[in-house]
Design brief:
By secondary structure, the protein is an alpha+beta fold. The protein has a single domain, classed as Thiol Ester Dehydrase, Chain A (Roll), CATH 3.10.129. Helix content is about 30%, strand content about 35%. The strands form 2 sheets. A 5-stranded antiparallel sheet has the order 2-4-5-6-3. A two-stranded parallel sheet has the order 1-7. The protein is globular and about 45 Å long. About 30% of the residues are buried.
Amino acid sequence: MADTATLMDSYTEMTELLLPNDTNNLGRALGGAVLHWMDICGAIAAMRFCGNQCVTASMDHVDFISPIDLGEVAVVEAFVFDTGRTSIDVKVNVRAEDPKKGEERETTTSFFTFVALDEGGTPTPVPELNCPDDTQEALRDSARTERIEQLRAVAERID
């Protein structure tokens, strides 16, 4: 395992064409399907970052702010923005793309925590996050700020 890894080492983007099996009776993406794609993309980002198998430990609050319609492309993007000793925090964004019009819109964002496992299935140390340029630093800082703001907003709703 390397001592450090960069945010871009973890960057992952995957696409899914929304087909009828993943839609509700309104022709829109099932929330569970979107969460599944987010979990997979986040796990790939975490594994690319640390070079080990990773398991989902938690997922923060999710608001579906815009639907993904039948025939649109779901673009799922993930990157590591923070680490602990054995944990990896990953921001996952989803946007809908209309391939005919070339238009995109944000649909949801959430923050996942994964735990890296060694060959025996025991939590194992992960590299430190290195952001060697301004772009990576800005992505990291923005994700940290957004997560804090999202958690604060959820806590305020509970009060």
